[in-house]
Design goal:
Among the domains are: 82 residues, no CATH class; 168 residues, Collagenase (Catalytic Domain), CATH 3.40.390. It is built from 15 helices and five strands. Strands 2-1-3-5-4 form a five-stranded mixed beta sheet. A hairpin with a 6-residue loop joins strand 4 and strand 5. Helix 3 packs parallel to helix 5, helix 5 crosses helix 7 and helix 7 runs parallel beside helix 9. The radius of gyration is 23 Å and the shape is globular.
Amino acid sequence: MQSTVHSGSEMRMKAMKSISFLFLIFSLSQGPAGAEVTSTIAAIEQLHRARRLIAYPEAIRQPRIALADRLALTIAFSKHVKKVSPHYLRTRRAWDLDAWISILERGFQAAPQDPDIAWSLAQIHINERRYSKALPIAEAFKQANPNHHHAVAWQIACNSLCDGTPLRSNPKNIRVMPVHFCVLTKNPTASQLATMDQCRQECEILNHNFRSSDGHALVEFSFKSFSSYAQIRNTQSDLIQYGDSVEPYDSNRVARAFNQCKDTQVRDPNAINFYIFDSHSDGPKFSDRTSHGKRNSNRPYLMLDWQRLGNNDQNAEAHEMGHCFGLGHVGVPGASKNSPTNIMTSAGEQFGSGGARTHGFTEAQIALILYHAKRTSRRLGITTQSN
């Protein structure tokens, strides 16, 4: 999907009343205004997050701003631009993408080493399939941050593509990812639902939904094995305690238990591990449906609340598997629960609802998925490829 989106006046006018007071300090300033720009950034950050996307460009365009202050505003702006894209929602919300690019390019010229500016600018160009423009940005991004996976993945992608060419797996060489399923929760209703047949179906759900925005498969998920709760209930692995834990979810503690697990019925070291558990939080208690995915240095695992089996809630399987391949959350301003949003959209980004998560991965996301698919295959000792 290749296009540039332009804003109408309605969205800008709607926000102007909320942010006009922020610019008074600039009209009074004739030179460097470090304290003032700090106050302006703090004030903008108090706005609703979607409105910050309007407030920052307006502030950056104000006259008589010191270059250092303009750069500070641009860096603050780029931290939000990283999380949004017109490609994350089919019925795209209007904004002026060309204006964003102009702002970010000026910021990149001033500070090519800044990871937030480089990330946001490279991501825009890659999603628009402008790889020749994205390449020098990705190269500078990698040079300043040599271990940053986005920088490395994007440089590889831009080096291999011509402008306008979609980034895809070769259909003859799609990587096959074996998946081991394990029921960690003792909830009897969960065990009734989380059968071997259902887990086979979960692989089919992933193969159907874990795709590009135009429907192309990126990897192939293959059912490998299944362990019921009855089979692992006496395991010595600490991982089992997280099947029904009432403690706040601690990603680092769970990862430690996973990495230390030697019970191959619980953790298959040569597969992506898919756990069915019963999520708990203070408000809804065990009615909570929060799920998790973790790349875990390319030894990925996914924890799906049993109530979300069968893809009945916001495409949870594909979303959490996206985390397993290194993707973070994104936001869609104004999205409702039923909006056809990008798979990685989350209400936690404070732009709107996570939406239905039915819109596939963008070019920049695909680059990271393919990069980590290769690394994960190597780390897990997987050699199979689709024929």
